[in-house]
Design brief:
Radius of gyration: 19 Å
Number of strands: 12
Largest sheet: 5 strands, parallel
Number of helices: 8
Number of domains: 2
Shape: elongated
């Protein structure tokens, strides 16, 4: 599982962000300042760091330097209007930055792109002969590209990023609502899962990839 380090001195933000990233299939540790972040870097192997530029203990630049010395990519979290700090961060080798307040799904998308560029993390996500490439935004089955709607793609990404975990219908509805901007209810979710299965399963009537957990939701083993 891809391991991330969140360096953020606002405990509420760090906790909420860490929990969201875990739901997206990442392993997450958090640090409240530069000293704690450096201690974690010395004993843990991370695929990527999310670093707040403004820390009560030290600063994000020091953390970023320590990470880059180990070849670990960094995404900065910064307040709006901090252009000079952003430029400095990019000049010292940061992969990307995102301005607070940010949309969690946008951040996850950027994380996956940075991981793919650096050859780390999940990269391509696969189940059987179905392969989802987050960097290119494509899905193939047996090497042939599939045409998925935005909602079908989002559903598949959620399933493959959370292999082995139960995804409740409530969780799926929450994510689909944000991705589509359209009204999606429980019956509509059933239709989308059926359509996705028809495209990725060899036998949609007996799915081998997206399993139904009766009365609860779905799971990809």
């Amino acid at each position: 599982m891809t391991k991330l380090l969140v360096v953020e001195d606002d405990r509420e933000i760090a906790s909420a962000l860490s929990e969201y990233l875990r739901r997206e299939g990442f392993s997450v540790l958090s640090a409240g300042g530069e000293k704690e972040a450096r201690e974690n870097l010395s004993r843990e192997g991370f695929a990527l760091l999310l670093v707040d530029l403004a820390l009560l203990d030290g600063d994000g630049f020091g953390v970023a330097r320590a990470a880059r010395e180990k070849g670990i990519p960094v995404i900065f979290l910064t307040a709006s209007g901090d252009e000079d700090a952003v430029v400095r961060g990019l000049d010292m080798g940061a992969e990307d930055y995102i301005v607070k307040p940010f949309r969690p799904r946008e951040l996850v998308s950027r994380i996956r792109r940075v991981l793919a560029r650096n050859g780390g993390g999940d990269g391509k996500l696969a189940a059987g002969d179905v392969v989802l490439d987050p960097e290119r935004g494509t899905v193939t089955r047996g090497g042939e590209e599939l045409l998925l709607s935005a909602l079908e793609y989002r559903l598949l990404l959620l399933f493959l990023s959370n292999r082995g975990r139960l995804l409740t219908r409530e969780r799926l509805l929450e994510d689909i609502w944000d991705a589509a901007g359209d009204f999606v209810n429980d019956n509509t979710l059933t239709v989308y899962v059926k359509r996705l299965r028809e495209k990725i399963e060899k036998d949609p009537q007996n799915p081998a990839i997206i399993k139904t957990v009766r009365g609860m939701g779905y799971r990809v083993d």
